[in-house]
Amino acid sequence: EDELSRSSHSNPGKSLVNGIKTNPASNSPKSSLPVPMGPPVYVDLAYIPNHCSGKNTDPEFFKRVRASYYVVSGNDAANGEPSRAVLDALLEGKAQWGENLQVTLIPTHDTEVTREWYQQTHEKQQELNIMVLASSSTVVMQDESFPACKIEF
């Protein structure tokens, strides 16, 4: 904290992002600064960002964030959610792992995109040890019902 404080005072207009000094004007998501490579991160569960839109998730995400479970949300075909490109990126990224760890993909909605992707890439999913959970479970509370998914560890 002392080093961070000193760097802020000695370099006005500069800040630290992930331990790297940056200029706040360049902290936009489309910044041209390269992201330093590092070892992959292993987690139990990862939520695919931005409702599984292709804006922020690519094969590099799946190469770096290695999860036992990926949750895919998104139920808005007009906005490209979920994105077929992101689902394909999972296959591409997982193929680079070099180890055949079990991965479970958990869609929160049953969409045409997800169903098509599942059917068209089923052999590749099996080869890469990817299981897709499909749930037709429904929760009924008072006068309302909605789809449900249960995750157990």
Automatic annotation (TrEMBL):
Which superkingdom is the protein from? Eukaryota
**Sequence intervals crossing the membrane:** none
User: Compositionally biased, Polar residues: which spans?
Assistant: 20-31
Q: Where is this region: Disordered?
A: 1-35
InterPro entries associated with the record: MAP1 (IPR026074), RibonucZ/Hydroxyglut_hydro (IPR036866)
- A GO BP annotation: regulation of microtubule depolymerization
**GO CC terms for this protein?**
cytosol; dendrite; microtubule; microtubule associated complex; neuronal cell body; synapse
Which molecular-function annotation in GO is an example for this chain?
microtubule binding
* Matches recorded under PANTHER family: MICROTUBULE-ASSOCIATED PROTEIN (PTHR13843), MICROTUBULE-ASSOCIATED PROTEIN 1A (PTHR13843:SF6)
Q: What is this protein called?
A: MAP1A protein
Organism, scientific name? Ciccaba nigrolineata
Show the taxonomic lineage. Answer: Eukaryota, Metazoa, Chordata, Craniata, Vertebrata
- Per the record, the gene is Map1a_0
